[in-house]
Amino acid sequence: MIFQTAPNIALQTNAPGLGIVMLLISLLGSAEFYLVIIPAVLWCYDKTLGLRLFILCSISVAINVVLKLFFHAPRPYWISPDVKAFASETSFGMPSAAAQVSLTFLGYICAWFKKTSIWAICLVLVLLVGVARMYLGVHFLVDILTGWIFAIVLLFVFLRYESAAAKWFLQKSVPVRILLALGASLAFILLSQMVLVSYGTWQVPAEWFSLAFEQTTEYINPMTLKDSLLAAGLLFGAAAGAGISAEYIPYRVEGTKSQKVIRYFVGIIVLAVLWVALSAATKSPGLTGYSMTYFRAALAGLWVTIGAPLLFRKFRLVTSE
């Protein structure tokens, strides 16, 4: 069988007591982690690197959501009571988003710096994320391997065409850039909806619901557009914000250490407030919840790319370019 629980059970049996450690390692593959790390790069280290990482990771998450729906595969603890669930996930399992996005992010870092030491560190981190997701009982080995494969393909394409694509994008007027960003984000939502329609009469097996609930007391809800809307919103905010920023908000990231510290903490606090404040609205039923999911993610992306830089310029925390 493609979905073998033996690796999960072996990890949990032979290395007991590591649940919390694996949860912490697993954070390296979460969307929230990159919403904390990428702004630090974009605001305080290298604007170009930060923007490209933001767009690349947003694309990776959006692709992953479509692929999850396409494969509509279970998670280990959904099908086997022998696998302990140290974490709870409500979406389908393959490919692993944590494995895919962490390799996408760290792989681009390696390509950017081209240093052996960085390659070694990133490789260890990527492997640890994969092991952690299996230990937690939320991914099969095949989920991890599939995530890595798609990450490598995406990295190859992005590195091959990023400069040409950026040049083409920035040759357009700002309204066209915004429309292109919106079109790209809506395309992923449409793809997700098309995949769901292709299911026909297929439904999530009742055993998956019951086994998942027994361990986590949380109902799974894999046949939803919420994750697609989140990824698409981030992509729109990142791409549209990059297009607007390049034209109207040029700035330099150089500055004193105190300026950079203030930039980051002010920017990230506002981002956290926005993210948390709109969280409840995303849980509303029907169209309201769907709309707020997209809006919250898009607003977060726009804050990172244009809102915070505008604030930094106003208070002279950055210099104009």
Q: Explain this structure to me?
A:
The structure is a single chain. The chain has helices at residues 6-14, 19-26, 31-44, 47-71, 76-79, 97-113, 116-135, 141-170, 174-198, 206-216, 226-248, 257-277, 279-282, 286-314; strands at 251-252, 319-320. With 321 residues, the protein is mainly alpha-helical. It has a two-stranded antiparallel ribbon with strand order 1-2. The chain has 14 helices and 2 strands, in the order αααααααααααβαααβ. The longest helix is centred in the middle third of the chain and has 30 residues, at 141-170. The chain has one domain (18-320).
Order of adjacent strands in the largest pleated sheet: 1-2
Task: State the end-to-end distance.
Answer: 57 Å
Question: What series of H and E elements makes up the topology?
Answer: HHHHHHHHHHHEHHHE
Helix content range: over 70%
Short description:
By secondary structure, this protein is mainly alpha-helical. The protein has helices spanning 6-14, 19-26, 31-44, 47-71, 76-79, 97-113, 116-135, 141-170, 174-198, 206-216, 226-248, 257-277, 279-282, 286-314, and strands spanning 251-252, 319-320.
